Amino acid sequence: xxxxxxxxxxxxxxxxxxxxAENPVLEIDLSAPTKPVSPTFHGLMTEEINFSYDGGxxxxxxxxxxxxxxxxxxxxxxxxEAPGAKAEMKVIDTHPLTDKLPNSLELTIASASPGQRVALxxxxxxxxxxxxxxxxxxxxxxxxxxxxxxxxxxxxxERFSSPLHVSxxxxxxxxxxxxxxxxxxxxxxxxxxxxxxxGADVTPSAANKFVISAENPGTLWLSLVSLFPPTYKxxxxxxxxxxxxxxxxxxxxxxxxxxGNYVEGDTLWERFDWKAMHGPLPFRPGHRSCWNYRSTDxxxxxxxxxxxxxxxxxxxxxxxxxxxxxxxxxEAGPLLEPYVQDALDEIEYLTADAKTSYWGSxxxxxxxxxxxxxxxxxxGNEDQFDHTYSYDARFTQFYDAIKAKxxxxxxxxxxxxxxRQPDVIDxxxxxxxEGFIKxxxxxxxxxRKGPKIFVGEWASREGSPTTNLNAAIGDAAWMTGxxxxxxxxxxxSYAPLFVNVNPGGMQWKSNLIGYDALNSYGSPSxxxxxxFNNNIxxxxxxxxxxxxxxxxxxxxxxxxxxxxxxxxKLVNPGAAEQTVRIDTKGxxxxxxxxxxxxxxxxxxxxxxxxxxxxxxxxxxxxxxxISASFPFTLKPYSVVVLRMHAE
Length: 647
Ligand code: AHR
What we know:
TIM Barrel; 31% strand; 647 residues
């Protein structure tokens, strides 16, 4: 009897081995103990790169609004003189709007008259997007000259006090799409606000310019010229609606900001200095960023928090930790103290009571009386590149100071640390799709007793400016590995998130979401994340893939314990179909019908673009015949999410 039992189990083992030799079997045991999925598992990582904010998410449409982009030249501005009119424009610093915005544009009009205008035109960030039936808010500061004569009575500067005309016009000047007029200009800096409302007959286009014109001679100065379309949730100084909607569809749980390299800057003076990036725009000087263009800093600390509020994301705040990219490291000790204090002040600005704290009261003055809640603070970025090896000491100084005041905060280290145990370590991975597919078990045997993991930047770098289907396959494979370890990996975020696809807009190849002035689109990688993030449970069941060694089939499963939905993710990186048997143990009730969300394409290089935004996009279909053991076939080059009911 014993012998026959033994033999029969050998036979059944041989049969199942033969079965998975032919087709792999994914075994999911719903009766075995599970691991929890981190509630903040997936999120977004962001920094100013590839015109992510200026010319991207930040809805400002005027480029070089404070005339600071290039010394001495009003880049992106042009002068229009109607036949018979005559004028000159130049950037000067003798009439500052504030000490933070020293430059203004001086317009000296020698001759102009009604019908013979002089105009200043801004070309925007690769065009000014204009849509029908839309209200655009233009604001700008103007100061008119008073008449100045020399001793001989010669007029050196002519008074300007007339109203100005403001308009949106087609780039060729042939069409006026919306217009308004200001009150008369006076001799002191004055803020003007006008609404430019387009009609129903306007065709959506980015081939437009923003124009301020005058019909009288005289001299005037302009500063901080701004134009906003309607913004997401109608926020003042807000964000672009189409891009925010794409982010909302990713269901992000957190936002890691403001970098990335952007938090560090090339030099100490170009770091993310939060104290120069809050409050009214005339008091934000902007700065050159490490990605080689100037940032207006219209997206400052409070705007990032507004972004978090709008998408219901937890902030993961990165603070400057005394290291900048050109290998400038501030020595730990007294020299580092001011930067530690900046970080403490930043935390206080965000979290303190508005009545009892100076920094809290400043936040209230800036428009947000209610304190925010913080949980995670990241100390620096990629500090393994600090070849002075000062990070351990710098981290320790930040760690001790922050923990002493805020023991509730979880502190993230960006490189290995010996002298303290960080709560979380940030790991970054930029690879080929193949590199990710080969490393899907990266965290399976990782120490569960040490710091938790934040995969703060990762991406398959294939395709440009946005990634292609092959990258999405590599990303999905990597995500299955992260998901199976979502108890250890408390946070993960792809990078970079954005790219302006216009010539000159990209500094980093392979990005998630692309846009021009008018339209935006998600890459195949974006869709893989939408699929994964919208279909994830709260626990990770025991699972095992039994397959011949040559089979490449990244997989993961999670369960929603409330709805008893079992989510199975499968990736087929190969050029042939792949069948897998899904065996579920420990469920007495499995619904025969489920759903499959599929992302696939004929060619791994296939991709999306402004003109073909949905060439590679997920499709959802019904799946019949689901049972405790059923076969499922994946198309070549495909990512699949299966939603099943099993309890
Ligand atoms: O995502 C682009 C850059 O890659 C980030 O700024 C930096 O952290 C990493 O090296």
